[in-house]
What does this fold into?
Amino acid sequence: MGKTSQYRSEKLCTPCGKVKKSKEFRKIKAQYIPGWKDKNGIKRVSQCLECERNKSNIKFRKNPFPQILNVAKRRAKRNSIPFEITHQDIKDVWPKDMICPALGIKMNHGKGMGGNKFSPSLDRLIPEKGYVKGNIIIVSYLANRIKSDASLEEIEKTLKFYRRFLKK
Ligand SMILES: [Zn+2]
It folds into this structure.
């Protein structure tokens, strides 16, 4: 081995066995979490972003509920909307056949949350009501993005608008 400087611009990621640039490793902000320091003295995690993503995707595939719940909780906090659901509430609305109820397409969660347009995602029927029982539904990420926080009227207007252009 060459020099063992504490500060590096590249590092070997053990899980994938590849040497990668420091920016391909996530920064660590918390003091108490161990890591390695890049050449600018920024503390980073030991495995690369790709490996981290793969790991979380595998976790998500096995049990998607904690991740979905965490993301929802953070969003609720950020938008100051109610958050009163549990894992079980998500499980209860999870489509058994994995078909998106809005688009009728098969959803898959092989690529993690928001991994692609077919990933399952949690939608609030009435956005401002927040994450409460009866107001949540699982739809594909694509359907969720199309609806976003639009009202029915807004969706209809948008649809009419695009129809005019695309049906010429
Ligand atoms: Zn890696």
